[in-house]
Amino acid sequence: MSEFTRPIGVPKDQILASRLTLNPGMRPFYRMLGQRTKRKLIGVGLGASTWEGSVADPNRQISCQLEKMLQNSYNPAGVTGGYSLKCRNAGVAGALGWVKSGSSGEILDQDTKKLSTLAAGTTATHTTFQPSTGLDIFFPSGPTVGAFTVTIDGGAPITVTPSSTEGYTEKWSSGVLTRQVHTYVITATSATVIGLTYIRDQDENYGLRLYNFGRAGGATTQFVDSTADSTWARITSMQPDFFTLMLGHNNLGATTVAQMQTDLGIIADRAAAIDTTKKVPILVMAQHSTDSRWPAFHAGIKAFAQTRGLPFASFYDFFAKDTTAATTSGDYYTDNLHLINEGHDIAALAVADQWQLPSRKTFAVTP
């Protein structure tokens, strides 16, 4: 409920109190928001293919829409807020994401999981779908990660040379640019690897961000086993203020419900251990699926959140729950699981409603 929709005569502090009563698990998140006029607030979203944005355009995927709704709800005045975009995400038509020219591929690295590999001479180009004031690029380092250049609106190339030491915490940032639509081009000088990018918009010092740490095909296992250490090194380097967590579907046929719950507990504990001086908000979500095994896992995720006192949101009830009621190429998904643009719209609104976000405004889209 927003300032403009609260019942006449009901003070704002009573509305906030009602939110805290209805969803007490959100209290750490609301406490965190008290810092939003003092510094940036960084969120990390852990998930699998739906969270990562499979078969959806970057401006429609649930992760990016929720990021924008959070910004429109809580960013300080004059801080629009940008958007997170993985270099591997080209969008459905290959136009809204990072458009590749040359030889590119993917690597199951441990830094933000699936990364883009760019062969020497390959370019990745992104024209922003909202005004931008700068670009951040996150990438690994080591002897196999080569140099690359960045050009902005056809200007002189800027050379970025990753460290030769194996690592997962490299970052390059442009200076603050004139606020307008920009075209960024990354060119691999030699074979290189690019992970997450963040398109800034007046949020160099303030505002909420929600970095996309999705990994297509990822079960809870991939975030707790020995190969996850470098993922957590990257996350720790970002000093996140809050987490969103949408995992579990890839556990079908791979683990039991109980093992999934144990893994979720390890993930939550590891997130909390990054900064023990504060209670890091962790917002748990569960997705849609028509798989007959999903109800038990969905219930297990909800039970985990309730046991831990964490807020839980789900868009399971917003779509058909069995394959007889859902066609494999329906209006909202491609295979009874992976949501297309319209499905992501519904899922994002469903979660925003359960989080009680004051604003549900997101990106303008072309019909």
Structural class: alpha+beta
- Going across the biggest sheet, name each strand in turn: 14-1-15-16-17
Q: Please tell me how large the radius of gyration is.
A: 20 Å
Mean model confidence by pLDDT: 88
Helix content: 10-25%
Shape: globular
Alpha plus pi helix count: 8
What are the main properties of this structure?
367 residues, alpha+beta, five-stranded antiparallel beta sheet, globular, disordered N terminus
Structure description:
- The strands form four sheets. Strands 14-1-15-16-17 form a five-stranded parallel sheet, sandwiched between helices. Strands 3-6-11-8-9 form a five-stranded antiparallel sheet, with no helix packed on it.
- The protein has 367 residues and is an alpha+beta fold.
- Helices cover 25% and strands 24% of the residues.
- The longest helix has 17 residues.
- The N terminus is likely disordered.
- A hairpin with a 5-residue loop joins strand 8 and strand 9.
Draw up the topology in text.
Blueprint: H1 12-22, H2 27-33, E1 40-47, H3 49-52, H4 62-74, E2 83-86, E3 99-101, E4 104-108, E5 114-118, E6 123-127, E7 134-141, E8 148-152, E9 158-160, E10 167-173, E11 183-188, E12 192-194, E13 196-200, E14 207-214, H5 229-237, E15 242-246, H6 257-273, E16 282-286, H7 294-308, E17 312-314, H8 341-355
Helix pairs in contact: 4-8, 6-7
